[in-house]
Amino acid sequence: MERKIAKVLITEEQLKKRVAELGEQITNEYFGKDLLTIGIFKGAVPFFADLIRQIRIPLRYDFMAVSSYGSSNRSSGAVRLLKDLETSVEDKHVLIVEDIVDTGLTLKYLKENLLRRQPLSLKIVTLLDKPERRQVDIQPDYNGFVIPNEFAVGYGLDYDEMYRNLTYIGVLKPEVYEK
Ligand SMILES: O=P(O)(O)OC[C@H]1O[C@H](OP(=O)(O)OP(=O)(O)O)[C@H](O)[C@@H]1O
Ligand code: HPA
Ligand SMILES: [Mg+2]
């Protein structure tokens, strides 16, 4: 697997350190509040699992899954809900946990969808932000790393459903896309 990686963008050590920092920041900001963290399948799973254990206050967690209609249609902004919450957001401070904000279409959909349910507050934490690709106006409230306009894999991020289990974030060699 590693021989298909052209370069490492973020090492395992950098990820650990930044996730701990984000956890501490979130701990301080939500102290004494009823927090519901929402992980977004499938990409956010490794980040989500590490982050929640760095948040040192009682919390609840739940998951949502969405899908965009085919890559060619992405710019249409059509996002479909595949799995909804099992928990009510009423009387909760909600924190969406994502792996990456790219075009922003996924988070725009999620934010609008969740705001309609009137949580006490709604914020977004993402591990990666790729601002050069943004198509809609959406900003994460907490961000791990800003990355350049390159396709990232690892630590949850996939190419063709592979590479999610890498312990670091990397970029694939061009030959991988040629097959
Ligand atoms: O800002 P955007 O352009 O919308 O891209 C970001 C989204 O795309 C990826 O998920 P994807 O829909 O590929 O599914 P996955 O999480 O299951 O990999 C990623 O995990 C984000 O959820
Ligand atoms: O850079 C990326 N890598 C993997 N999945 C993604 N989904 C949006 N951007 C990316
Ligand atoms: Mg995703």
> What name does the CATH topology carry?
Rossmann fold
What general outline do the C-alpha atoms trace? globular
Roughly how many Å is the radius of gyration? 16 Å
Q: What CATH architecture would you give?
A: 3-Layer(aba) Sandwich
CATH class: Alpha Beta
Question: Topology as H/E string?
Answer: EHEHEEEHEEEEH
Helical residue percent band: 10-25%
Q: Look at the structure and give the mean pLDDT.
A: 95
Discrete helix count: 4
Structural class: alpha/beta
Number of domains: 1
How many angstroms separate the termini?
15 Å
Bound molecules: 1-O-pyrophosphono-5-O-phosphono-alpha-D-ribofuranose, hypoxanthine, magnesium ion
Biggest sheet features: 6 strands, mixed
**Low-pLDDT segments:** none
Sheet-strand content, in percent, reads 25-35%
Q: What is the number of strand segments? A: 9
The neighbouring-strand order within the major sheet is 4-3-2-5-6-7
In short:
It comes from Dehalobacter restrictus (strain DSM 9455 / PER-K23). Helix content is 24%, strand content 32%. It is an alpha/beta fold and 179 residues long.
Which helices and strands appear, and what pairs or packs with what?
Blueprint lengths: L4 E6 L1 H19 L4 E7 L3 H8 L6 E10 L10 E5 L9 E9 L3 H11 L5 E9 L12 E5 L5 E2 L15 E4 L1 H5 L1
The chain binds 1-O-pyrophosphono-5-O-phosphono-alpha-D-ribofuranose, hypoxanthine and magnesium ion.
Main location: cytoplasm
Cofactor: Mg(2+)
Pathway: Purine metabolism; GMP biosynthesis via salvage pathway; GMP from guanine: step 1/1; Purine metabolism; IMP biosynthesis via salvage pathway; IMP from hypoxanthine: step 1/1
